[in-house]
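Model: Ready when you are.
Researcher: Fold this.
Model:
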Amino acid sequence: MRFLYAPIVAAALALVPLTDPEAFAGQDPVYQSFLGTAIDGTDPVAYFTEGKPVEGTSDHVMEWNSATWYFASAENLAKFAADPAKYAPQYGGYCAWAVSQGYTA
């Protein structure tokens, strides 16, 4: 029964565009939800200041690199705004190995 799904999976994978490795030379494309939310709405600065994921709020939002970023506080938003690359996930949040192979996962 599971072999019936193989053609469907193969067709779906064929539709996934490969990312040009040169795209990672500048700003990384950011992995985001269907609605454009980066890192599932968690505060990226909190990973550095609190050492754990902290949910961001709609009171503290910023658009950066074609994604919407949420923050737990105005202070964290200001830190991110001053240096987004310092707090954003490397390789846009995509798998580092996949990026090294020329695609995103």
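Researcher: Now this one.
Model:
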Amino acid sequence: MSLETVLADRRKEILRKWEEVVLDRYEAESVRIFKNQKDPFANPLGHKTSAGLEELYEVVCDESDVEIETPALGQLIKLMAVQNIAPSQALGFVFSLKVIVRKVAGKKEISSREWESLDARVDRAALALFDIYNACREQLHRVRFNDLQKQRNALTSEAVCPSAFMNDE
């Protein structure tokens, strides 16, 4: 049996386990909502997680050099970037796919070449996602910096200082 067959036949199981790895970082009550609420508007995090993982799975399973940034995956990475967690925590889930696939494949005869190919695709995906994550974090910091600049300017530009106002009286 080939690794490609395992990836296709056990897709739902692998995705379910992979989603559990991502959601395990959240509180139990949040995870319950993420898993049970299927409405994308009532549960945007759960929906973006599922959609992003499905697209990433497709990218990793495709042996061609397919573009890594997909719409749902971009949304998932943006969601990770706005959270106050380390990049290793935000993107560590990508590497867990290797472990999950090996457990699901079990004792099936899969060549080392196929495993090496999967590992390389997962690693390439993780590196590409780190670049996307980093760009999102930079954008977030620029927005925050610009907001601080605007607040400072609102306080200092042509505004009468309260103490100066008191001196005028």
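Researcher: Key takeaway?
Model: The mean pLDDT is 84.
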